[in-house]
Amino acid sequence: MDHFRYQHGKLFAEDVSIATIAEAVGTHLYIYSKATFVEHLRRMQEAYSEIETTICYSVKACGNIHILRFMAEHGSGFDIVSGGELFRMLKAGGDPEKVVYAGVGKTDPEIRAALEAGIGFFSIESEEELRNLIQLTKDTGRRVKAALRVNPDVAYRTHAYMTTGTKENKFGVDIGNAIRVFDSYAGNGSVTLCALHVHLGTGGKKIDPYVEAVEKVMPLVDTLRGKGHTIEVLDLGGGFGADYESNTVPSAAEYASGIVPLLKHRDLKLVLEPGKSICANAGIMVSRVVYTKQGPTKKFVIVDAGMNDLIRPALYQAFHFIWPTDVTQDFVPVRRSKRLLFEGTEVVDVVGPICESGDFLAQDWAMPPVQRGDLIATFTAGAYGFTMSSNYNARCRPAEVLVEGDTFRVIGRRETYDDLIAREVSERA
Ligand SMILES: Cc1ncc(COP(=O)(O)O)c(C=O)c1O
What we know:
By secondary structure, the chain is α/β, with parallel strands linked by helices. It folds into 2 domains: 4-32 and 280-421, Beta Barrel (Lyase, Ornithine Decarboxylase, Chain A, domain 1); 34-277, Alpha-Beta Barrel (TIM Barrel). It contains 12 helices and 21 strands. The strands form 3 sheets. Strands 4, 14, 15, 16, 17, 18, 19, 20 and 21 form a 9-stranded mixed β-sheet that branches. The chain has an 8-stranded parallel β-barrel with strand order 5-6-7-8-9-11-12-13, surrounded by 5 helices. The longest helix is centred in the middle third of the chain and has 19 residues, at 208-226.
């Protein structure tokens, strides 16, 4: 579900044409649809309404403060993984009590800042981290809640770089050690271990890994409770699928239909940390064709956005549906798919200007013919798009635009060359 649609062959974000935005703001740029964000959040809130659930939107997926602000206004909490994300969340007016903080390498300054802010709970990824948190919490004279992130060793079936819940991953502690950790640190007096956290990975398309994870974790909850530990919360992380191709992943309601029955009447609050499933198809990246070029074996469409702007194809071999924003009626895509068959398309590599052979948005991709100056949209780019962008090749990062109904505004200005050297220029230089 999203609000990017072709009307008479022209791509619109909600009620604004992409061409209008590109004309006003320039290319390349990210364009987000507020209605898509809010609708995905609402669907998730509804799907889990039978149990007390806090949706903690994953800031790392798309963390522009304007987006965080309206997500907070619509009831979202936040999943953070760094001091920088804590800072963003606070600037956006998020409620610290609805914040969960995961990450294997939290530094002392980051932990102190989170304690100072009064976040909901820390997600503990190792015993050494827990000992450190206890010490730092004692120093501040505060108490804080924590979840133990357990690694349930569930196969999640995604790209190797996107799985986090198997024994080989650096995340969490082995589920077999959980009881010992709870027993060892229960009486520490400053960090209350009262939750379990599981995050399986990102980019999956199936419900059963969640069911398997809950089925592995619930006996642990029972055992811990039997030993006198209070377990208030189960945090099931994120990783719910997003439609990179139309209708290929379970809906929020379908995921919930597998998960909720296992947790109902268990006296547990639920936390979920969705990123992609909220924001992936709430954003597109728009770029302009700079040149086309026929090589000996391939045709290249060279655009003004590169792997520094959207690294997912290069990093994960991720698929993004790419299509011109202005097409004849014959070429209006009825759905987004890897296997869309249209007569008259041309097989091309869509590449950026970066000096790397890995700099592509799509390879061997059948697209309507385009020429210099045309606009093309890379769909489902809202998650891990702008947030993973860089200045490689001294390129200015693109503008970010938010569309709301028939209006749009720049929520992140395009970087300038001065931005590129701002950190390096001393006052005297
Ligand atoms: C701990 C944690 N929670 C939530 C997420 C969000 O995942 P996704 O964007 O796939 O929902 C991630 C990302 O991998 C994560 O590491």
